[in-house]
Amino acid sequence: MLEDACYNNKALEGPSIFYRLFHSGSRGAGAYLQQSMGERQGTPRTGRHRARLVCRTGRSAHDRTDSVRVDVDQNGTGTSKESFAYLAPSVKSIYPDKGSRAGGTKVTIHGEHLDIGSQIRVKVNKTEECNITEKTDQMIKCIMPPTLEADAEPVTVCVEFEDHSCQDMELSTTYIYEKNPTISSIHPTKSFLSGGRTITVKGQGFDLVQSVTMHVLEIGQTNCTVLSPSTITCLSPESSQSQETSVQFVLNGVPYTGDSPSSSDDRPEEEDGEPQKEHFQLGYVEDPQFFTANKEKQIKHHSGEPLTLIINQKVPSELELVPEEYSVMIGSYPCNISFHNDQLFHCTINGQLSSSESELPVTVQVGNFRHMITKVQLGGSELAIVVSIVVCCVLLLLCTVALVVYCTKSRRAERYWQKTLLQMEEMESQIREEIRKGFAELQTDMTDLTKELNRSQGIPFLEYKQFVTRTFFPKMCSDYEKSLVQPTYENDSFGPRALPETHPLLQDWQANNTTRPNVEEGITLFSTLLNNKHFLITFVHALEQQKDFAVRDRCSLASLLTIALHGKLEYYTSIMKDLLVDLIDASASKNPKLMLRRTESVVEKMLTNWMSICMYSYLKETVGEPFFLLLCAIKQQINKGSIDVLTGKARYTLNEEWLLRENIEAKPQNINVSFQGCGMDSLSVRVMNTDTICQVKEKIIESFYKNLPFSQWPRAEDVDLEWFNSGSNSKLLQDLDNTSVMEDGRKKLNTVFHYQVPEGASLAMSMKDKKEKTLERVKDLDTEKYVHLVLPHDELMETKKSHRHSHRKKVLPEIYLTRLLSTKGTLQKFLDDLFLAILSIPPDRPPLAVKYFFDFLEEQADKRGITDPDTLHIWKTNSLPLRFWVNILKNPQFVFDIDKTDHMDACLSVIAQAFIDACSISDLQLGKDSPTNKLLYAKEIPEYKKKVQCYYKQIQEMPPLSEQEMNAHLAEESRKYRNEFNTNLALTEIYKYAKRYRNQVINALEANPTARRTQLHHKFEQVIALVEDNIYECCSEA
C-alpha cells in the first residue's frame, strides 16, 4: 500500500509535533488519521511504534497551505511547525517522443510539481513502468521499457502519484514506438593491434539511438558516435594478439539482436527473407611498420628550404588503409602526404621550420599506433644569414643599375617627347595653313567655275531618258557607259564625235515582217491586260511566289513595268499603292521597322523608280548645281596633290583606304599646251611634277573640253604629247620608254620630274592615227611589274627598302590621317550646301510626291494602330533618303555626263555614309576603334540629324494633297516625257516572264474570283496563243 505519511521520530508526549518529513501532497489524496486541517478530518490508524504516526491525507478542492494538527486523546493537541501544501501536478511534454521497440530510450518528462507526495510512478500504456532515474519539481527522467506491439500507434505515458491510477489528462502524454534500428554491415573488418581504427557501421534507424557501445568479444568495448540516421563510427579497442573475433553492439543499453527487442522467437526478418545479423566479424592483424628510405636516424635540414621525406611502409594488405588514416608530424608541424604506391609515400613541408630545439621528431600515426621513425636536425642558420646578406647586396646593386637606366631612358623619352610635340605643332600649323590655302584656292577656282557655268547648259545634265535607264537598269547600263567613253573618229577629223543613244529601250521596236500582225496584236492585248488592275496585281503576286524568281528578276520586272506604264503614271501609282498595302500588312505582323529597308520585292523597286521619276525635276532644278559643284570641288582638291596612278591613292582624300600615307615631295608647275586640230589657242595647264604622262594628258584634255560632256572627250590613250625643249627639237613623252628606271625590281613610270620639264615649257598634243596600236590604260598595269609613287602594301615593304631611299622622311603612317581633316575642311562648305538643298523645301517648287507619299505612310500607320514615331521615321527614311538620295550621291553618273573615277567613288561613299547616319534615329556609338569614315563627320552628324527632323516636320505641315491634285501632277509628268521609251520592247520583255510562269499565272487568275468573273485567264491564254511561236527575238536583256 502506498503511504503518504507524516513521520515523527519521538513519542507524542505533549500536544505538539516536533518533526515532519513531507511538506506537500496531491489534492486528490485520502486520509485515515483524524486530524484537523481546515475543514478536513482523517481517521487515525494505529502504528507499530509510539514515536511514529502514519496518516493519509484527504482530498482538497484547490491549492492551499496550512500546518498539521494532531489530536491525542487525554494528551491534548499537537501542531506542526512546518506547513503542508496541496498542489496540482501537470505534464506538459515528453522528449524524445519516439523510440525503438527494444526499449532503453531515455526520455525526459517536463511539467510542474512533479516531485510531490511519497510515491511517483510513470506508467506506459497503463501496464509497463518507465524506470525513473532522476526527478525534480519540473521534470522526470526515466528509461522506456520494451514493447511487443508490432504497430506504431501512439501509447499513453502517464505520471501516477500514490496509489491512484492516472485519469487526469494533464498528467499524461503520448509516445510512439518505432521499428528497431537495424545494422547491415561494418567496414573495415580488420584492425591493427594498437586499435583506434575507425569502424564505420552502416544501417537504418540510427536517429532513434542515443548511445552505442561496441563490444569486441574477449578484447574490450568502446563507445561509438552516431553521425547520421544510417552511419555510426566506433574506434576499435586494443588487442594483445592477432585473432578473429566477433563484435556485438549495445544500442540504448539493449544488446542488438536484429530487429526484435529481445531474443524472442518471433524475430522479424528482412525483406529478402534473411535473418538480421546479431554479431559481426572483426579481425586483428599486426601493426604497420614505417621507416625512411635509407633508415636514417637523423636528417639534416636547413631553415628556409622546403623539406620532403620519403617514407617506406610495410602494411598488411588486409588492412586496406586509406590516405586519410595517415598522420605525419615533424615536431608540432603537420606534414603534407602524397602517395605514389603501396610501398612508399612522400611527406612535404613548404613552410619554414622553427623551434627552440635543435631536433624535431618525425612521428607517423595510424589510429592509436604512433611511431617515431627519425629526427630532423635543424641547422645552417649562419649560412642563411650569409646568403641573405649577399642577396641584399645584389638586389641593392640591381636597383642602382635600374635607377641609372631609368633616369637615362627618362631623359631620352623626354627629349623624344619634346621633339614629337614640336613635330605635332609644326604639323598642326602646316595643316591649318594647308586648309586655309586649299580652301582659298578652291574657292577661287570654284568661283571661276561658277562664273563659267551656264545655268541651263554649263552643267552636263543627262537627258531624262538617259537618267531613267541608268537609274532603272544600273547593271545593264554599265557596259553601255563604257561604250560612251570609246569615241570613234573619222580619218579626216581629230575632233570628238558624240555617240547616238544605243540603249535598247530607247530604240524603235521592229518585229519580223512575217510575224508582225500576230506579235503586234498579242503585245497590244497583253498591254490591255497590264492596264487591268486585278490582272496586274495577281500577275505580280504570282511571280513573286516562285522560288526561282530571284531578286534581280523582280527588280527587272518592276523597271519594265515602269517603262510600259510610263504614259499612265496615275494608274502606275495606284498599282504601287495597292502592292505597298500588301507589303505593309505582311511587315506589320512581324517587324514593321524593317519595311522598305532593302529592295527585294517588285513593289520596292517600283517605289524607287516612282521616286526617281517624280524627283527628277527637283533634282535638276534645285540639287543639281550644288551637287555638281561638290563633285568639281572633290576632283580639284584631289588633283592638288600627288596621286599614285596605279594604286589610286592620293595625298588629299576623304577615304582612309585611298590615302597616300607617305610624304611625297611634289611641286605644282604650269605648262603651255596647244592641241592640234582643236581650233583653240594654247592654254596654260597646272600639273604636278609627280604626275605621269597619262595624268598630264588627262589634265590637258579636261582643260580643253571642260565645257563639253565627258562622253565627248577623247581618251588619254588616243593622244600624243610632245615637248619642244629647245628650238625645233621635240621629244615624245610617254609613260614607259627606254629611259624608264627600275625601282625595287619594278619599272617606274615616267613623270614630269623624270623628263625634267621646266616651268612654262611648251608642249603640243595631237590625236593618234586610229591605225596605230593603242597601249592599255596605265591604271590597268600590273603593280607587280610597275610602280609610280609607292609600292602596293607599302607599309609591309618599308623594312625592305634600300638605303638609296633614305632621303625620304619616314614617320608613322597614321600621322597622315590628318590630311583627311584637311580635305574635309576644304570641302565642308560645298557639302553643307548640298545637304541644305536636299533637306529644304523651296516655296516655288515644293516636293509634291514626297508630301503625297509621306501622307500615305502616315495613313497606313494609323489604320494599323502604329503610333511609334520611330517606326514612321524609319519608313520615311527608307522610302526617300536611303532609297533615292543615297543612290544619287553614290552614282553621280546617273545625273551628269561626267567621269566618276574610283577615287571619287570612295570619297562619295564617305559622304553617303554621313548622310545615312544623319537619317538614322539611333545615336552613334563611336570610340577609338571606330572606322575613320564614321569618325570624320561625327561632329557634324547631330546638326544634320536636326535638319532631317526639321525637313520631315515641314513636309508634315504642308497642306494635304488631294488625289485629283496628285493625279494632275502625275499626268503632267507623263505628258512631258511621252514617247521617250520603247514601250513595246518593255512589254515584250515582260511577256517573257509571263511565258516562263504561264501555268502559275493562269492558276492564280483562276483562283481570283474577280479575275475569273471577267475571264482574265482566257484573255491571258489568248495572248500566249498569238505570240507563242512567233515571239520577237530581242537581242538584248532588260
From TrEMBL:
Keyword list, A-Z: Membrane, Transmembrane, Transmembrane helix
IPT/TIG domain residues: 88-178, 180-259
Coiled-coil positions: none
Transmembrane segments: 383-406
Keyword Membrane: yes
Residue numbers spanned by region Disordered: 252-278
Entries under InterPro entries matching the protein: Ig-like_fold, Ig_E-set, IPT_dom, Plexin, Plexin_cytoplasmic_RasGAP_dom, Plexin_RBD, Rho_GTPase_activation_prot
Record-given protein name: Plexin-D1
Species of the source: Ilyodon furcidens
